[in-house]
Amino acid sequence: MNKARLYYWLDWMLFLSGLGLALSGFVRWFVLPGAGRGGSRGAEAVFIFTRHTWTNIHQWLALIFAGLVLLHLYLHWNWILVVTRHVFGRDKG
Ligand code: HEM
């Protein structure tokens, strides 16, 4: 796979995992708030999936997203160094 294709698919995965994180986070925040199990009645709240599953999805997406961010920074590390030097005045031109 050439560089352009790799960056293209990596950026799509970053976008989609970020979107999934926001979605699962907002579901946990607004649709199924509260902790863990369904309190005294024992039944777990459900919106498409159980609350517990939404938390699992959120956690796995967080790991995937963090890994992709690190990979993204690694692949663009030279760009980051060059532009940072430029912005802070060394290596002007
Ligand atoms: C719009 C973005 C986000 C929203 C609205 C959001 C919302 C929430 C909420 C409400 C919780 C607590 C409920 C739960 O435990 O499931 C939570 C927990 C958590 N979030 Fe997010 N989140 C967002 C983005 C992120 C991002 C970008 C990351 C990391 C890359 C992340 C990682 C986590 C982790 C690790 C937990 C702890 C889960 C646990 O064990 O309780 N979240 N988030």
Provide keyphrases for this structure.
93 residues, mainly alpha, 2 strands, binds protoporphyrin IX containing FE
Overall pLDDT level: 92
Strand order in space, largest sheet: 1-2
Amount of beta strand? under 5%
Beta-strand segment tally: 2
N-to-C SSE series?
A: HEEHH
Our count of helices gives 3
- Could you say which overall geometry the principal axes of the C-alpha atoms support? elongated
Distance between the terminal alpha carbons, to the nearest Å?
33 Å
Low-confidence segments, given as residue ranges, are: none
Unique ligands:
protoporphyrin IX containing FE
- Rg over C-alpha atoms, rounded to the nearest angstrom: 20 Å
Query: Strand count, sense and closure of the main sheet?
Result: 2 strands, antiparallel
- State the secondary-structure class: mainly alpha
DSSP helix fraction: 55-70%
